[in-house]
Design brief:
The complex is a heterodimer of chains A (366) and B (309).
Chain A: H1 2-17, H2 19-40, E1 48-54, H3 59-70, E2 74-79, H4 82-90, E3 96-100, H5 104-109, E4 122-124, H6 129-150, H7 171-201, H8 204-209, H9 215-245, H10 253-277, H11 281-298, H12 313-316, H13 320-334, H14 342-362
Helix pairs in contact in A: 1-9, 2-7, 2-9, 7-9, 7-10, 7-11, 7-13, 9-10, 10-11, 10-13, 10-14, 13-14
Chain B: E1 6-17, E2 20-31, E3 35-39, H1 46-53, E4 61-66, E5 69-70, H2 75-81, E6 82-85, H3 97-105, H4 114-120, H5 136-148, E7 154-158, H6 166-181, E8 185-190, H7 193-199, E9 202-207, E10 210-215, H8 217-223, E11 228-234, E12 249-255, E13 258-263, H9 266-279, E14 284-291, H10 294-302
Parallel strand pairs in B: 3-8, 3-9, 6-7, 7-8
Antiparallel strand pairs in B: 1-2, 1-4, 4-5, 9-10, 11-13, 11-14, 12-13
Classes of the chains: A mainly alpha (366), B alpha/beta (309).
Chain lengths: 366, 309
Amino acid sequence: MRAYWQLTLSQLRIFLRNRQVLFWTLAFPLFLMVILGSFLGNGNGISLTIGVVDQDQSFQSKEFLTTLIENKALTVQIEKSENKALNKLKKDDLQLVVVIPKGYGASLSRPPAKNAPYLLPVYFNETNIAVTQVGLQVVNNLVDGISKEKLDYHPVVVMDMKGVETLNLKYIDFLIPGIVAMMIMSNNMNGVAGQIAAWRERGILRRMQGTTLKASTFIAAQITARLVLNGMQALIVLGVGHLIFGVEVRGSWFTLISFVILGILAFMAIGFIIAGIAKTPESAAPIAGFLSFPMLFLGGVFFPIKNMPEFLQPIIQILPIAHLSHALRETMNVGASFMSLGTEALILGGWLVGAFIIASFTFKWE
Amino acid sequence: MDSQEEIIRVINLVKTYGDFTAVKGVEFQVHKGEVFGLLGPNGAGKTTTLEMLVGLRKPDQGTAIVGGFDITKELKKVKEVIGVQLQSTSLFELLTVEEILHLYASFYPKQVSIPSLIEEMLLAEKRKSRIKSLSGGQKQRLAIALALVHDPWIIFLDEPTTGLDPQARRTLWDIILQLKKQGKTIVLTTHYMDEAHVLCDRIAIMNQGELIALDTPSQLVKNLQSDSAVEFRFQNESSEVELHEIEGVTKVGNQKDVFVLYTDDLQLTLTSLIHMASDKQLKLTDLQTRTATLEDVFLHMTGRRLREG
């Protein structure tokens, strides 16, 4: 037992004294979070700027313009010439252009006739369909309103709008659990593999083998020290995410911490396997990289898994990182309980047990 | 030495790596309280033998009884009574001297006082320094201190002075002799002859996996049956000389173009050599005479020098 505490303490001292490693293993996730969070984090609304060319200059056209301006969904920009407005539309400076032709007012003042309704030209950019659709909808509603008003129309049925408060999730909410998962993966898988392989090469493990120290004590201490260190790092990333981007943990901290621990253990076990396979510390890094790089992009760290190609889905579904990031995300964003994340817990647990069994066969002191 | 009580008995130890047999059935005993030297050139099998005795390698055949325990059956007990310093071990560079001693002490049920151990190993000033900042000699003394934290009876030192400067080597010799005074048994490997001569009570010479001689240093030299050596080279390469015919020569050795004549009668051999050289019009260079040493014993027995190149 004394050996276990001494080894844990020594390992923590080594971590804390290795300033550079400590700094960069934290700096990278924080840097990623701040950069990606600032650029992509707030892109949740569509801004609509609509250009209006009033060729009529009548009372009715002014009235139309006022209605447009009053609509909060739109930014209205008054344009003098139709040509200039259309050029801006092509450059995407304007999303829609409404032209009020001469004779608009006169046409509306006439008593409603049986003839066709007045045609109001609205130009839009065909390449930017999503925004255009929203814009056209808004303008359509306005025009509809004007027509109804002119006809002295009384609606028979109206909608009773009841907004339901949904989770206002931004990209940063998606990103931070992913970054925590990424950090857990790289620090443990790459970290353990590199360190154990280096210690073996330098004969540090061999020297310990010459004592009465048991391998299980050594490994238990390794695990404890890494749990402490990585737990702290995860807390720092979450803390920064909360302070800067207001990301919250909606689920229980117990669930979150359970998954952080499960993730650390599973990836550490994989790290021990790599350390066993790698003949030199130089080969440990590429092997770990070979495994971690695809996991970063496929495992739902930066991009949602459902956006991945169909043929990759079965592979993605067994990756430990996919389940770790998903479980962290569900816990933080939606507030899922531990019980509802049973599948994720089981798969991560499976990786943990399987990897430790393989690791115990491949582990070598020298 | 007086009691001749046996503390290590090595029985027919064999280790093979694929086709290569590194240790070929070595047998010897080590007495309690002695400094026992395993000597040999690189690849002689001395490190492999030592590593089997401390449990780092499993013997393919044979066994050894170390401190009363069988290394193939009671390794944990063996490890409690032995202390090990391995060749070129590196340690956790970021820990301090004191911290690593406490760490290693925690691996054992029994331990000595660490402050006094630091004192004995002349590391008091470096107590709180990181291992990274230690000199080669200090690191080696720390490695020995680590071998002593649990107060073992037997201490195994694998090439403890290799790579150290002369001053650091002498400091280490003092420490080893001090340990002997405390009653520890020490088994060390070395390829320095002078070191073996100063430190060891008995020496086992190994070559190509076999034990070829085992005796006290002075007896080994005596067995050479020649107390002097004459070394020289010929300026023009001419090895077609029958050096055995020179008077008084008991043995002839050579290493590249250097010839060594061993003799009991230095004067007779020298005059005869010079006479022969002038007869055959050969020019002698780098001529020197000296007393025969362990180095010569080795050269004679194996045809190789201990440290080649």
